[in-house]
Design brief:
The protein has 202 residues and is an alpha/beta fold. It contains 7 helices and 12 strands. Strands 2-3-5-4 form a 4-stranded mixed β-sheet, with no helix packed on it. A 3-stranded mixed β-sheet has the order 1-6-7. Helix 1 crosses helix 2 and helix 2 packs parallel to helix 3. The chain is globular, with a radius of gyration of 16 Å.
């Protein structure tokens, strides 16, 4: 909006918008398998391996916690634009999990997942998209009940070839690749059977 000040301009410059990318928290699990909404046409339901996916069209905004204004931006968007599910990204410590929750974040996105960080994120009860970039990290997250993951930084970590190789041994995992994803390669990522959505720059 015009004349809205540095807070809004900072939020727009640091925010990725997603439609329908919204993982469910653990409390909604059914039969031990998580559900998620993962970037597919509104109303469509399907299964991938042991993971049931239910898709709706929702407007979500992820604000990376990389500037001093970021948490205030999350709080303001949550209060003033309730039709947007605003989440906090670049959540790297248990303290940031708590701060994001207090600010009104609807979900959190982790670039990676240490034991303490993952525990705090799960305990928060917020929908969670934890990040991984190696097969060991993916298997660690699987052991902790996470089957919908962020793959970051995607292009620097092997890109489509790496994700394609994981589909065989780890068929239950769905990924949201980010980092180096854009107009030139987004279609090839979305063509992979274990990619439910992407985050990129356009």
């Amino acid at each position: 909006p015009e004349n809205s000040g540095d807070l809004w301009s900072g939020w727009y410059s640091r925010t990725n918008l997603y439609a329908g990318c919204y993982p469910f928290p653990a409390k909604y699990r059914d039969g031990g398998h998580p559900e998620s909404r993962a970037g597919c046409p509104r109303g469509k339901s399907y299964s991938h391996g042991t993971t049931r996916l239910r898709c709706t069209l929702e407007l979500c905004a992820r604000t990376g916690l990389r500037t001093p204004a970021a948490l205030a931006a999350v709080e303001r968007v949550a209060a003033e634009v309730p039709e947007i599910r605003v989440g906090a990204g670049t959540v790297t410590t248990p303290e940031l999990v708590q701060a994001a929750s207090r600010a009104g974040a609807s979900f959190i996105v982790l670039p990676g997942a240490t034991e303490r960080l993952l525990s705090a994120a799960i305990d928060s009860g917020l929908p969670l998209l934890p990040g991984a970039s190696t097969i060991t990290e993916v298997m660690y997250l699987l052991e902790n009940g996470q089957e919908v993951l962020k793959f970051f930084p995607a292009e620097a970590s092997g890109g489509r070839a790496f994700l394609s190789a994981l589909a065989g041994p780890l068929p239950t995992v769905q990924f949201c690749p980010t980092g180096g994803v854009g107009p030139d390669n987004v279609s090839s990522y979305l063509a992979l059977p274990n990619v439910g959505c992407v985050g990129g720059t356009w």
